[in-house]
Amino acid sequence: MGLTGIQIFKMLPQTNCKECGAATCLAFAMNLAAGKAELDSCPYVSDEAREKLSEASAPPIRPVKIGKGVRERTVGGETVEYRHEKTFFNQPAFAALVNADIAEDELKKKLAVFNAFQFDRVGFNLRPEFLAVKDVNQDATAFAKTAKLIAETSEFNLILMSQDKAVMEAGIEASKFKRPLIYAATKDTVDDYGQLAKDKELPLAVKGESVDEVMELSEKLTGMGAKDLILDTGAREIKQCFEDQVGMRRAALRAKNKSVGFPTIAFPCEMASNLDMEGLIGGMLVAKYGSILVFSDFTSELLFPLLLERLNIYTDPQRPMTVTEGIYEIGKPDENSPIMVTTNFALTYFIVAGEIEASKVPTWLLIKDAEGLSVLTAWAAGKFAGDDVGMFIKKCGITDKVKNQEVIIPGYAAAIVGEIEEELPDWKVTVGPREAAHIPAFLKAR
Questions:
Q1: What angle do CA 8, 65, 285 make, to 5 degrees?
Q2: Average predicted confidence (pLDDT) for the chain
Q3: Strands 428-431 and 406-409
Q4: 65 has a pLDDT exceeding 90
Q5: What pairing do the DSSP bridges indicate for beta strands 93-99 and 130-134?
Q6: Predicted model pTM
Q7: Are 429 and 404 in contact (CB under 8 A)?
Q8: Which domains occur in the chain, in start order?
Q9: How far is 282 from 205, CA to CA, in rounded Å?
């Protein structure tokens, strides 16, 4: 970052107003130095200090915001090469290619299918974000019509792909309220597209035929005042694309090379002859280090594994994945169905829920917040103590749903039976299996 927390603190107003969310200006300065806060959170920093601090605190890879609405996406902004060093912040975005000459009825059907691709996982709603409208015959009217229909009738944001300035302007005018990405400024169009992006205040993709050419173009565009850039080295062969992605990330982080310090866009759709292979390439690029990935189509078979990979890689490795505390219905439980309780560690939840589903026994599953720890670890750390579990059962609302007053606790937490019984004197506490694999037999035998 270049500045320590103390150096930053000296440039802050030092009012301790707490409006930034930190208790003191010193705490805010330390958070800023650690990359855990944004300078815009301080409403009173002077313009002079803001200029100095913005430059000093800027991540080596510029964050770029694309789109508007619920699927708006910020890409880039990364500060490390490997997630275990700290964490990755901004998940890559997925896009599907749509030709501008597509028939309106066919496009509406495609949008209906695409909009349905939403998967709930660990409390997150996973879905793709972009559609890339490709100009195929320099028809400005068709390009604008397709962009307008997507922008107005779906949640998807847009990537506008054309090398014809007039066609691009028509597409921008039809969808500008969605803040589309302009693709792409090349050595032949850099002046026109750079000015267009600057005038319309839109993000701009830069396409070269090599990393060196991309660097030249990005330097020229930043000199023109176009700051929100997305880089495409033009590589459409897997090995070269991989090398370019890794090389640019290393140059930005290790050598502080600002000409490659931007998010990237890659095209698995132009690197494979079938969607299965596109998915394999996409999986590689999610890990190494694609910011926007464009596929020829969306299917559940393509998206689901990529969305899960993206979620896993871009989850902070220093914080366990959790599910929300509460009551989960497995099957269609009634007032006499069994009640089980466990911790909110995501892996624990999915394993236990899966085994309950396999048993075919409708069950109430109570998930208690244990700070994302597994049962045994949570019990050892005092996060799954009997009195806390008993109090949770009282307050979670399960008593309004059931006549049954028996709770089944994990076998590894057998030691808390007495404490729960003290908290719930009218309840029966049963110790369940230690291993989740034994849950189906346990439930069926009841």
A1: 105
A2: 94
A3: parallel
A4: yes
A5: parallel
A6: 0.79
A7: no
A8: 5-57 (1.10.15.40), 64-313 (3.20.20.20), 326-444 (3.40.50.11600)
A9: 19
Maximum alpha-carbon separation in the chain: 79
Q: Are strands 130-134 and 124-126 parallel, antiparallel or unpaired?
A: unpaired
**Residue among 204, 212, 200, 210 nearest 230 (CA):** 204
Cα distances (Å, whole numbers) of residue 254 to 161, 249, 415 = 32, 8, 51
For residue 94, the surrounding DSSP H or E stretch is strand 93-99
DSSP 159: E
Whole-angstrom Cα distance, residue 81 to residue 120? 29
- Determine the Cα–Cα distance for residues 20 and 3; give it in Å rounded to an integer: 19
Please report where in the chains the tokens 């501008």 appear, as a residue: 100
User: In angstroms, rounded to a whole number, what is the distance separating the alpha carbons of residues 323 and 308?
Assistant: 15
| Cα–Cα distance measured from residue 255 to residue 248, given in angstroms and rounded to the nearest whole number | 10
List the alpha helices (DSSP H) in 98-210.
Answer: 104-115, 140-153, 165-175, 190-200
Supply the DSSP symbol for 157.
E
- What gap in Å lies between CA 405 and CA 208, rounded to an integer? 68
Query: Which residue in this structure is represented by tokens 């896993």?
Result: 312
**Which tokens belong to 272?**
């494979």
pLDDT tens digits, 168-214: 999 999 999 999 999 999 999 999 999 999 999 999 999 999 999 99
Name the phi and psi angles at 140, rounded to 5. -65, -35
**DSSP code for 378:** H
Helix axes 190-200, 165-175, angle to 10 degrees: 20
No. of helices (H) and no. of strands (E), the chain: 16, 17
State which amino acid sits at residue 110.
Answer: K
- pLDDT single digits (tens) 268-310: 999 999 999 999 999 999 999 999 999 999 999 999 999 999 9
Distance (Å, whole) CA 445 – CA 439 = 10
3 state SS of 366 = strand
